[in-house]
Amino acid sequence: MTPVQHRSHVDDLLSFIRASPSPYHAVASAAQRLEKAGFRELRGTDDWTGTTGGSFVLRGGALIAWYAPEGTPAHTPFRIIGTHTDSPNLRIKPTPDTGSAGWRQIAVEIYGGVPLNTWLDRDLGISGRLALRGPGGTTDSRLVQIDEPLLRVPQLAIHLDRSVNDGLALDPQRHIAPVWSLGAVQEGALLRRVAAAAEADPDEVLGWDLMLHDIQPPGYLGAEQEFVVSSRLDNLISVHAGVTALAGAATAAEEPAYIPVLAAFDHEEVGSGSETGAQSPLLERVLSRSVTARGGSPEDWSRALAGAFCLSADMAHAVHPNYAERHDPDHHPLPNSGPTVKVNVNQRYATDSTGIAVFAAACERAGAPWQPFVSNNAMPCGTSIGPLTAARLGVPTVDVGVPGLSMHSARELCGAQDPGHLAAILGAFVTSG
Asked: What fold characterizes domain 3-87+231-431?
């Protein structure tokens, strides 16, 4: 990719991130882009018989999309890109209105592995979805996004805590309730504010999945703008790259040797144990139905899986200049040197030599660099949806990811060239013969 192409890709990525403050928004943003590329939504209650072309299924904060041109044999193997839509953050409790010492506050719960200090003294908005009462006892879901500085988790002044720089010692039950106004607690105040933003009647709101997000927009950093800084780089970089690759595969002229698939799961940051997580049968059921819809038999389904391969794309750790001793001494990934292939022999990542070969071949076709990543033996290793997908479907899987700093922070950093490299590699992966 040329510098202009890298810049164009990142500009588009930043637009995607701005529109995707929650997993539900990320799925909606991805679906909108796929629809522009000619894909269409299939609902679980629809009859899929004879369905070909680009299709996608939405389930809460998860999306499964694939492209099968007319005439594609039912036993054609899958090339799966696995990603996730969620990020660690602060989520609003069912009874949110609280307060202390004359301040009105909001009760939140910590979601995933959050470095709590990164959420202090940041201007926070609210996003997510509302469950609304519909006609005839039905329910409806509506997205809400408030990109206004409504809330803030204020840090205690150093004059009142001289030990603050000795380490962060926050009691989440006491110190992580953001302030948003003065005065006595007003029951229902948050609901009224959020419902108004969603143009909904508060009395029709039956439930919600709401979270806080940093309203500072994403952007570039560095003397040459060689870095990207943003919330939710983990893992919207990979979701955006997967959408880009899938849309590109739909325009490829040659007959595909594989059916390209994008699986964007929710709840990866808390173990993937939900109906929309990688531990669920969601991907398996959708792909099986897609085979049946094209006239396939159980034997065709088995053949399609036997030839399948999954590339799990999630963020990775770049070597930290101030804490190099925390990294493996012989593996120091750097930004703008290409995505990493992540190896852990204890199966925290699903990569083996076959997966490395498939990934390296895709990098060669894309003309993109890559780097190996291994965690320090003295420290526990993170994981991803790779091992879960490999175990669930029984398909070989390789774990890869763009290296960055400040993972899980309210604001993360990566190289400005690596998102484009990842998209090009994923495109080569799903369209290769």
From this structure: Aminopeptidase (3.40.630)
Q: What is the pLDDT of residues 239-251, one digit of tens each?
A: 999 999 999 999 8
Residue 184's pLDDT is what?
A: 86
Instruction: Report in angstroms the alpha-carbon separations of 297 from 55, 57, 88, 228, 255.
Output: 20, 21, 41, 47, 22
Q: What are phi and psi of 419, to 5 degrees?
A: -60, -40
Sign of the C-alpha dihedral computed for residues 23, 24, 28 and 29 taken in this order: negative
- The domain locations on the chain are 3-87+231-431, 89-214
| Residues 144-198 pLDDT 10s | 999 999 999 998 888 988 877 776 556 666 667 899 888 888 999 999 999 999 9
For the chain, the three-class secondary structure string (H helix, E strand, C coil) is CCHHHHHHHHHHHHHHHHCCCCHHHHHHHHHHHHHHCCCEECCCCCCCCCCCEEEEEEECCEEEEEEECCCCCCCCCEEEEEEECCCCEEEEEEEEEEEECCEEEEEEEEECCCCHHHHECCCEEEEEEEEEECHHHCEEEEEEEEEEEEEEECCCCHHHCCCHHHCCCCCHHHHCCCEEEECCCCCCHHHHHHHHHCCCCHHHEEEEEEEEEECCCCEEECCCCCEEEECCHHHHHHHHHHHHHHHHHCCCCCCCCCEEEEEEECCHHHCCCCCCCCCCCHHHHHHHHHHHHCCCCHHHHHHHHHCCEEEEECCEECCCCCCHHHCCCCCCCCCCCCCEEEECCCCCCCCCHHHHHHHHHHHHHHCCCCEEEECCCCCCCCCCCHHHHHHHHCCCEEEEECEEECCCCCCEEEECCHHHHHHHHHHHHHHCC
Report if pTM > 0.85. Answer: yes
Q: Into which CATH architecture does domain 89-214 fall? A: Roll (2.30)
387 CB contacts (<8 Å, ≥6 apart)? 347, 348, 349, 350, 397
